[in-house]
Amino acid sequence: VPVKVFSDRDEGSAFVAREIASLIKEKNKLNKTTVLGLATGSSPLLLYKELIRIHKEEGLSFKNVISFNLDEYYPMDHEDVNSYHRFMQENFFSHVDILPENVHIPDGILSREQIEGYCRDYDNKIKSLGGLDIQILGIGRSGHIGFNEPGSQAGDETRLVHLDEVTIEDAARDFGGKENVPRSAITMGVKSIMQAERVYLMAWGQGKAEVVKAAVEGPVTAELPASFLQNHPDALFVVDPAAGAQLS
Ligand code: F6R
């Protein structure tokens, strides 16, 4: 899978923002919708900041954008400080003109019985729109994409999953201790991610160097789900020098 090393995360994020903005502009001209797969966490923060700037300063409209977020903790209230619903509102959606009915984020308040049907609907909606035009990803130290943890298969669909121990440790700071981190999440499956037309995986900082090397240069294995991207026809790792430091 190709890698582009940018001088810093601002440059890398600006690159991905330009790619997204030009696709939206192109589709807007044709009166077509753009279907985006979106991530939360620290990795896409500057991307959202830049897209907001392009919206405000250059008039890029998100009215024809339909979005699907990768994941949400389960259980999780929408208003919780750690909810990905809240994250997306605060860091992106409330600053642009995307229509609320076009936003999709896995729901953390479903009952157990509702989850399976909800997940089928989530995938069917993506399919009915012709799949994702662009999928944005971060990468976890466990090798996860979305919350597809080690053991996830290439054909896995949207579903309820258990979080990996490493992921729980990394989330502990946000939740004020490991014991407060939800053990489960609802995540888009590897399948929809792999069917996206284009994929950008962003990784910054030395903490990601080891997992980036393994995902890019190691074997394709369910033990490191990000390695599945080696089989994607149009995926790109966008990294800073620290995250790319172990690449040969
Ligand atoms: C978030 C997600 C996760 C994160 C990954 C990296 O929606 O799907 O896979 O992208 O855990 O998190 P950060 O960016 O906080 O290092």
Automatic annotation (TrEMBL):
TM stretches of this protein: none
Glucosamine/galactosamine-6-phosphate isomerase domain segment(s): 8-231
Residues forming the catalytic site: D71, H144, E149
Biological function: Catalyzes the reversible isomerization-deamination of glucosamine 6-phosphate (GlcN6P) to form fructose 6-phosphate (Fru6P) and ammonium ion.
Family listed: Belongs to the glucosamine/galactosamine-6-phosphate isomerase family. NagB subfamily.
The name this protein goes by in its record: Glucosamine-6-phosphate deaminase
Residue numbers of the full-length protein present here: 13 to 260 of 636
